[in-house]
Batch of 4 targets.
Target 1
Amino acid sequence: MACLEKDGKGIMISAPPDTGKTSLILKCLKANTGQNLGLSLLSDDMVIANEKGELFSFPKPFTISSHTLDAVFGMETSLWYKVRSNVHSGGGRSAYKGMGKMSWLPMMSINALAQIVFEPPKLYPEELVNVK
């Protein structure tokens, strides 16, 4: 669940993992810097709402792939960033599931080990776009 804000109203974007939510909001925010779309970022991954329907920012770094950085910003990333990006992609998570089914080691343990060995590729939104 990603969320942008415009004129005090939330624009929530819900879609399954690895379908382009981060790319979409980054493209909207990137366009915002030159075209004054009036958008600001509330969240890339989690939105907090109260009983009145008010939405709140949940500041945390993006887990962002090397191909998204290249597609949205034309940023070339290091080989290590690309490796980490692939390990934490949908394909990587599918591989963990498969390994968990084929071994005595549970999938969550395999995932935890991958998180330790291959730190997820994280960037703060401020490193990429203007954030209010």
Note: The first helix runs from residue 21 to 35.
Target 2
Amino acid sequence: MRNRRPVTAEEAMRASSLSVDEAATPGAILAAMERAGVDELPVVTGDGRLAGMVERRAVERRFYDRGDEETPASAIAAAPVAQAAPGEPIEDAVDKMLAAHLGVLPIVSARGRLDGLLLLDDVRGVPGLIEFVADRRRRRDLDADGGTRVVAVACGLASAGLGLVLLALWAAGPAYGLPRWVAWVDGIAALLALIGAGLAPARDMVSAPLWAVAGVGLCFAALNAHAWRDSASSTWLQFLFGIAFLLMAAVVGSPLPRRLRRRWSSRFGPARLASPSP
């Protein structure tokens, strides 16, 4: 890897011997990590298949905190967060490492055998590789965030329009036969809609739960009362407003878990790789 830039993950990986057997004890795992200079190692079965990954912190909790010296690696291992194929482009493999904040990425064949390990410190030694992948990820995230923002703004405008209509129903609805409690449901939904419209472009997408509450409230009102002199059309109107709010909550809230996971990982994700031994 020092003579030329690797093209695939296989060209940059270390040998599969950098692993522990599924029967290895916590003490043996920690010793293997010290020899390899890493904080995470793959666990392999007797036929060389990847059984999972063990992290130093999990092993230390067993060994030092609980005094457990016999639990096998197979019981401590967790499913790998990410993995790559031997022929996968090196840029894609590094992208997976950066996305999951990994220091060690297992390289696994199509048959599930561990072929090797890609170490973050190794790929850092390839000129321009990390910078290229990081820049590509930034551009991809900007494109995704830009599209999400456009959708959020559109939902915000729709929410403002619905909020004004509901505000009018709250103010004048009882004069047209709208039950007073239904009018107050409309008023609360209108308030949530207008607040959600103002918060829609915010990165935290606080609008989504507000719209969900508004939608559920309007659907509840429609299920329990006929408005406007017992006209069925008023019930359908409540339902349509409620469904509109629920749809906006679903559309804008769908990318929220991904962003929260990414933010959580970036703030609290552990550094999983120590400096490799020479």
Note: The beta strands are 14-15, 20-21, 40-44, 50-55, 104-108, 114-119.
Target 3
Amino acid sequence: MQKHPTSYNWKEDPIRKKAKEDIRKLFIDEYNRPKRTPYYISQLQTILEKNYFDRIVYNAAMDLVQDSFLMKLEVQTKYASKMVFFYNKRLENERDKPKVIKHIKSISKLVDKHANPKVTEILGRNLEGLVKYELRAQGFENIKPDSNEFRGKRWTETDHNLDFIAEHKSGKLNVGIEVKNAMAVMDLEEIDLKIKMCRFLELVPVFAVRWIKPHQEHINTQGGFCWVFKTQIFPLGFEELTKRLWHQLKIPVIVRTDLPEKSIRLFENWVKLRTCNH
């Protein structure tokens, strides 16, 4: 009789173990003393996003809670919903814990300012404006915002639209663009829906986003392009907020009036590749 394979022990997964060590380092100093700085889960995921997917960071942090190295605390906020904080368990004493709680409350207020719907709406419109400008600079015409129609075909399966539909002047490249100026990574379900819309409308899907690494290979295999900016881009007037977000939370935010130069070059090269004469 064939034996069933032994279940894989995810806690012993080398990537997850490495993530645990990298998280552990954030909560201790060079002398192994506990740092009083708490971190919330989205912050940890963003800080470590170049090396680990979100789920790995979350599981590794929870492993450290089970190992009695970290404490977990949930805080309800007005706009950011429930925030899950972690701090070094050695601070769970009468002297240090009040200071940690005070720090957590301060961070929660700052994140709430960032998550205010008025701010997120401004951020979305700002990036849409920068993307539209760059589309024109790269030779795209007939740029239609917030649309689900192209050349006589209309998407009716859901009530979703694409942020932009644009035609390149060469006649060789028509794109459907989804713009997201958010810290969080798009859900795979939403990505697949936008890809399906583009396929129906005979468009090439383009995702203009801060970060999308967990799904980049999936999008590439579907014939799409990931236009990644790495930082959340704020308009003029938000210098003070971005300064506080960067210095206090170490999350990638910046005030700019154009897209990052490297991302412009990558998009320009992709457009040239798709439109050049063979």
Note: The chain has nine helices and twelve strands.
Target 4
Amino acid sequence: MSESRYIDYNGEHIHSEEPVLLCDNRAFLYGDALFETMICFDGRIPFIREHISRLKQSMEILKMRIPFQFNEEFFNDQVGRLLKRNKFYKGVRVRLTVFRKEGGLYTPLTNEVSYLIDITPINFDRFSINNKGLVIDVYKDHLKPINTFSSIKSTNALLFTMAGLYKKQNKLDECIILNQNKHICETISSNIFLAKNNKLFTPSLESGCLRGVMRKIIIELATDNRINVDEVPNLTVDHLTETDECFITNAINGVRWVSGFKNGRFFNKMSGFLINELNKRVGYNE
């Protein structure tokens, strides 16, 4: 059983062990929902503007009505209240889920939405490079389609669930997801970067990868430090076998370096540098 805590359901604090969602909840029935996963250090959510901007863009695509109060100030305040209620004072993982309200079958009766915020403690209070590099491989059983929904963090995540089972079965740390053209798209939980000759390569948004907030920040940090970044629409597994370095990025861990793919072994010079730059960006100077 997970740790007991309070959650925020439409502004009301409810104990996490209490039932919240009805049996006709559209997130449960149809995956008619999306979410943002954010990190919070010392009561601050780094890059919350980018997170809420992506959330609202995705809601527009799904034709959900965006409440007027849905902005970074509102969610900063709601998370702050939840932190105090739970007496969480260090790093926490924040999951904000937005779902269309009940009613209808495939065709909704309304475009109004509800939201749920859940926070869980984590064991660190700043970004740091992983001491042990990740071992990854390619998940080939199912491919990710390239379409309007590719960049949305939807609760419809069967592809990533199946890849997660493959990862567990094969004792891997992560799996690479391929798109419908069998090009590198992302991993189960992250965007992916390759580094060669002091240049970065990452799948372009046209490849169907998630429009990751941390992906955007890392590209900005690299550009600010005169590191060329090439967003490639057709990055292949062959590119991965020829690279000097590989790392993955997400909002919770920042940057994690990959040490092994098949027989290849990678360094972590670029990923270590970018972690330091990331901490500077959020106000943690060495």
Note: The first strand starts at residue 6 and ends at 9.
